[in-house]
Amino acid sequence: MKLNSVNKLLKALGENTKLKRNDYSNYIAFHGVGNAYSKRWLGNIVPADLLKLSVKEAVEIIATLSESNIFYDKFPDYIGTPVYGDNWGRLANYIEINDRAIAVMDNGCTCKGILSCIKLLPAIPPSAKSFANCIILSQIWQNIYGDAYEKGPFEENSIYGLRLNTSYSDNIIDYSIVDKITPEEQLKAFVDLAHFRGIKVGFRHVISADQIKIARNYRDDEIFSWQNPEHVEIYITECVKLMNLGFECMFIDSAKHIGGYDMANYTGVGALPEYHQMQYILNEIRLRTGKTNISFVGEKSSDDFERYRLMGLNAGTDFITGDDFEAVRNLSERLKYYRDYAPGVEVTNDNNEGGLSYEQKLNRINSALFGYYLASDKLPSFMQMNDLFPLRYDTSTHHLMMTNPSYSTDGTALSHFENLFAKDDGRYYNKCAGELFAYALEK
User: Using CA atoms, how far apart are residues 176 and 288, in angstroms rounded to an integer?
Assistant: First the structure.
């Protein structure tokens, strides 16, 4: 009998596929307020509470927190994406999870990040009545230097460099079980479990040519070129593969500068696609997948709205921070007739180096979730893992994008999970953020 990806993953990990209700999680779960009472997730946590579990235990919690209140003792064979229409990305809350940072660090190696993401899923609030929550994974493809290896806290090991035309990152995939379940099926298992939670899924990547390499068998990698038709075809094909696995959002780094726009503020390395070329690429991804509901999100695509809308984007970042609630609500009102593209509210972004107080971040989340007169007019919003699960005091979102240190004090993966994040104050912050989401879910 052919197994679905979740059950195939469980079998590959040596587990059986029969699930048991997790009564403790059922008891402690946060609920949405009012009409959203059936939407549940685990708040008042630190990530180690979940990352120390087995994948099967995480799947059982996910099954227990089913919004339908139906408990499936075997994971269903078909799970569709939450339905919010073709332009769902215009309203969504995007939450970026650094899957490399929460991967298993063992004997100097980094692996199994997608399994850690599965374990963290019960703690991500589900989507609201009128707008979706979407997890953005920081890494899918291999990075150019040091993929699969931890390095010192100040030794560069940047995620901002991709190898295409090869398999997925060793940081993310559990390659010890690929004889039983392929890398694609591991990613599909995560996507299906996220959809079961009522959450959409996307991925971040760079488009600066000198930060991308094309892998070749038996010869050196090639530096990517947007002028090379074969390279462009490989890029499109790689994106289509992920969309066909159930991903439904692309977060495009440096999208503001496509076509040579505002290059004085460009900080990437290498050429970018031309404007019409990017229009073609995004259209091709939609055509080849047959999907009309993909959300393309541009980093810092925030001033010439019509330019980005016509490029094919649905949302963009870095227009307004959320510090001023009324400014967010007024912008929402001004843009309410723009139904297929809008710039969004940033709580923090991937370049954030820390320094914001918990109170300031919670105020920004409040503005992002409630800064509108009608929920149908909400602006998109952008958050980082750090905005739900605060990191330890001496690291930051950007630091973890640029480096890959272990914070383990005894060499174990669990110690890294425990020490990567803030502890008692992080738990209290997570509770406060969860309370904001609880009130947003019925909107």
Answer: 32
Give which of 179, 154, 137 is closest to 12, Cα–Cα.
179
Q: Rounded to an integer, what distance in angstroms lies between the CA atom of residue 202 and that of residue 172?
A: 15
Rounded-to-integer distance, Cα 82 and Cα 200, Å: 7
Q: pLDDT for 377-420, tens place per residue? A: 999 999 999 999 999 999 999 999 999 999 999 999 999 999 99
Beta bridge partners of residue 316, listed in sequence order? 298, 343
Mean pLDDT score, 274-298: 98
Q: What region does 8 belong to: left with phi over 0, alpha with psi -120 to 50, or beta?
A: alpha
Read off the pTM. Answer: 0.97
- Long-range interactions of 213-222: CB distance < 8 A, separation 24+: 213/144, 213/161, 213/162, 213/163, 213/164, 214/163, 214/164, 214/165, 215/142, 215/163, 215/164, 215/165, 215/166, 216/165, 221/144, 221/163
CA 354 to chain centre: 19
CB-count burial class (<10 Å; 0-12, 13-18, 19+) for 68: exposed
d(CA 180, CA 10): 10
Write down the pLDDT at residue 80. Answer: 94
Residues 5, 189 contacting (CB under 8 angstroms) = yes
